Amino acid sequence: MPELPEIETIAAGLRSRAVGLVIDDIALFLPKLLRGGTEADLAAFRGRKITEVGRRGKHLIISCRGSRSLVFHLKMTGQFLWEDSGAARDKHTHLLFRFRNDPRELRFRDVRKFGFLRCLEGDPAVSCPELRRLGPEPLEIGRDAFARRIAARRGRLKSLLLDQSFLAGIGNIYADEILHRARLHPLKRADRLTAAESGKLWSAMRAILSRAVAAGGSSIRDYKDDAGAEGGFQLAHRVYGRAGRPCRRCGAAVVRIVVGGRATFHCPSCQRRTPLRRN
Fold it and tell me: At what angle are helices 195-214 and 143-151 packed, to 10 degrees?
């Protein structure tokens, strides 16, 4: 599933190519893609200029003139791709935008059909139920606010990082990479972090996510940006997907466990559940 770095990359690409374009037509081919609205709500975007493309958590937001917005969640396999008008449409394309005085189409395709779209009026942070439930942005929350927030929770670190109401945008890949960089075991309880460990976790979160955004995200299976390019951060993964292979820090074999139903990768040497005591 695309996470914060991938959605940020897609948003940046769409921002550079779509802002200023006027939507001439929207064609919907999969009615269930539209959540909490009708095709009449979608038709209301015809003739509107795109004014901004942004991100909130794992959601992509296309804002249009007249205080209207389209909020997408790509789920596991959602993709945006630009195509020439009239190019053959594959069976996984479920929505397309045509623009005034522009030969290109923006197409949304989703092999697994889990993605969704909401058509909204007003501030999407208020009018979108999925956005209202989100916690702070990981790259925006300050160190002290993060420390207070995590100290108030008792869950395991891996599960907590995946909780979108705690922080918005971190998924399985980056939770594992963040915990490895911070040298914290995924099963460690949040309320048992020392002040130093909390600070390391905050710093690791910012470092990993910033590097991943700069690399265009991670392409594991299906992810590509709106230009059809793969990300590059998968080449820098230290533990994710590397079970049985050497930890890139210490050389110990990476271990795969399951936490909250999610495959979790960690180094048993770098990320000890109970740190070694110093004499």
Answer: 120
> Residue 241 burial by CB count (10 A; 0-12/13-18/19+): exposed, middle or buried?
middle
Distances 221 to 33, 45, 77, 95 between C-alpha atoms, Å:
22, 32, 9, 22
Catalytic site positions: 2-3, 58, 262
| 195 residue type, one letter | A
Q: Predicted confidence band at 279 (pLDDT cuts at 50, 70, 90)?
A: very low
Which sign does the torsion angle of CA 165, 169, 173, 174 carry? negative
User: Domains (ranges, CATH) in the chain?
Assistant: 4-132 (3.20.190.10), 143-266 (1.10.8.50)
Inter-residue contact 217 to 225 (CB < 8 Å): yes
pTM, 2 dp: 0.95
Interval 114-133: pLDDT, tens: 999 999 999 999 999 999 99
What CA–CA distance (Å, rounded) separates 45 from 128? Answer: 17
